């Protein structure tokens, strides 16, 4: 029987499906060279599961067929690159003018000399070609400490940088400059944002102001160019016995100064009580005081609740600070008084309050015309308004 050829023109589209072709029926020998190209394959027709393991080798890929445009991002990972071994630890991967890269050690070029070289010294250039200098007065010690101006000596755990002026009779300065100013940031971690620093010392060029601040710059003090000190959101605190010293102002024209130190300020209240079993109304017994240095001012209004028989002297017996001692009556002090509903003699000129030397009692005195003063008696429901300033030790 005569053989009839079947050409592609005699086969209608989709007449032969994959189910009509036996496994392995189409081999490389049945496909003419170049018969199947990219135009004969649908998009995504060849997937990874259609390609046998190790089927695609470098010999099967034409030179230059796979370029960067054919590779997706991150498809070549580090495990596809050459890796070193223990013998190449610390070396660098070097390109070899078109050849395979190799691991190489970076070394000082032949002919380069380092003068005075030793451990920890910082290497600097010199005015001589191929010559470097190892600086004995600029070193980074093995513990990480920076030493400038002095060879490393004792290490301190709380210090990392040491600056020393080796020249006799000279002062060591650290110069920091910047277009807007310069400063030092102190913090609890290496980060340099507002979450990682606590304090700053810096100079602002615009007004020549030195600022020392904490709380990310919100609290601290400014040293003004004119010499004034401004405190921002804080107080000035002194240790006990210390304060503001005014000794530079000099002493008095007459007399002898004993102290020019302002070492205290305090203000508050106290509940007054009386001697001789005299009691006060609880609503009219709270008094106030202010203490500036050794000077004390007390003031208040009291009202007698019980006069205890009508012939008792009115005396407040618990001033907040005792009056100081002094000879010749120098420490005795008198103050002003105003009365309501208080009985006084008809020849009364005025009423004063008084604190005696080395005493914490406030006495009330009635000054009478052409006769001696006498103590004021307590009257039930009478008021006494007073203020007096005295000095304590």
Overall description:
- The structure is a single chain.
- With 393 residues, this protein is mainly β.
- Helix content is 0%, strand content 34%.
- Among the domains are: 91-174, no CATH class; 181-232, no CATH class; 265-391, Sandwich (Immunoglobulin-like), CATH 2.60.40.
- Strands 15, 16, 17, 18, 19, 20, 21, 22, 23 and 24 form a 10-stranded antiparallel sheet that branches.
- A hairpin with a 4-residue loop joins β9 and β10.
Structural class based on helices, strands and sheet pairing: mainly beta
Question: What CATH architecture of the domain at 265-391 do you see?
Answer: Sandwich
Approximately how much helix is present in the residues?
under 10%
Number of helices: 0
Report the top-level CATH class of the domain at 265-391. Answer: Mainly Beta
Concise synopsis of the structure shown:
The protein has 393 residues and is mainly β.
List its traits:
single chain, 393 residues, mainly beta, Immunoglobulin-like, five-stranded mixed β-sheet, elongated
